[in-house]
UniProtKB/TrEMBL annotation:
Cellular component annotations (GO), alphabetically ordered: plasma membrane
Description of how the protein assembles with itself and partners: NDH-1 is composed of 14 different subunits. Subunits NuoA, H, J, K, L, M, N constitute the membrane sector of the complex.
Location in the cell: Cell membrane; Membrane
Annotated function: NDH-1 shuttles electrons from NADH, via FMN and iron-sulfur (Fe-S) centers, to quinones in the respiratory chain. The immediate electron acceptor for the enzyme in this species is believed to be ubiquinone. Couples the redox reaction to proton translocation (for every two electrons transferred, four hydrogen ions are translocated across the cytoplasmic membrane), and thus conserves the redox energy in a proton gradient. This subunit may bind ubiquinone.
Membrane topology: Multi-pass membrane protein
Molecular-function annotations in GO: NADH dehydrogenase activity; oxidoreductase activity, acting on NAD(P)H, quinone or similar compound as acceptor; quinone binding
Signal peptide extent: none
Broad class of enzyme this protein falls into: translocase
Name of the protein in question: NADH-quinone oxidoreductase subunit H
Record key words, sorted: Cell membrane, Membrane, NAD, Oxidoreductase, Quinone, Translocase, Transmembrane, Transmembrane helix, Ubiquinone
Lineage of source species: Bacteria, Pseudomonadati, Thermodesulfobacteriota, Desulfovibrionia, Desulfovibrionales
Gene that produces this protein: nuoH_2
Species per Swiss-Prot/TrEMBL record: Fundidesulfovibrio magnetotacticus
Amino acid sequence: MSDFFAPEFVRLVLALVAIMGFVAANGMALLYVERKVAGHVQRRPGPFEVGPHGLLQALADAGKLVGKQLATPRGADALLFWTAPLMAFMPVPLMFIAMPFSENLWGLGTDLGLVLILSFAGFNVLALCLAGWASNNKWSLLGAARAVAQAVAYEIPLLLSVLAVAMLTGSLDLREVAAHQGAWPWQWNVFVQPLAFFIYFVCAVAETNRAPFDLAEAESELTAGVHTEYSGMGNGIIFLAEYANMLVVSCVATVLFLGGAAGPWAPGPWWFLAKMYALVTLIIFMRWTYPRVRFDQLLNLNWRWLMPLALVNLVLTAFCVKLWGGA
């Protein structure tokens, strides 16, 4: 019984509660930011009526989703259909639990934090596959097939770019990777591994199904892809998981390439959040700036360019580490 009140267990429970609140609050905040960015890119104000400057629009949308009926399509596999949204969201707290928001602010200290995050990140594509398969809708099924092909393609160069940083620092512990970098920008891994950062960022955008790589839910081609048959909170949970995955990939990029919580003058957590939100804002800005690519262009970009570049970068990193030593 005393094990349930051990300091590590209490820390883990408090971290999970804090993470759930953080993800929920960020989901509504990023929805507002996305609409405002879209509005200004398209030379319009965006949401403006509900609350001051539309600040309460996300709360109104959440209330609308909660009040909508949960409908199961005719001929669909009800169990798998409603398991998919839960599977999309369940890994999110586990991916955040090993994230070092500062030197002393993390939920679970583990030497394999990077492996843990990359392992659970694969659940998202399984959720999309289940959602498309169980919906009994041809557009959803095509979206699921695209999601699987896209994930298989882009996970490989993403892992190779991450492996280059792990090889350079000599650790898979996110805390050690962050500690290996200094407080000033020229001491961050992004200046040592610029190609790895570029490959990681492009692959991260593709892995989270964000435009211009949102082929699994292309409205102009597949109605809404894997989301077509979902209504109410089923649809809301999938979108919340999408925003949470944006936060995860931005957090990992912050730790691997941007020094984590390191920075001059200001406290560490503020630096971490500033870097993370800068990357998230860039991902949102890209959605409303660049046109959606074709599916053949999506795969050609990976197999013809990102994969060879990631392999070359990894080989050069291994050579440099062997020649001059790593961490």
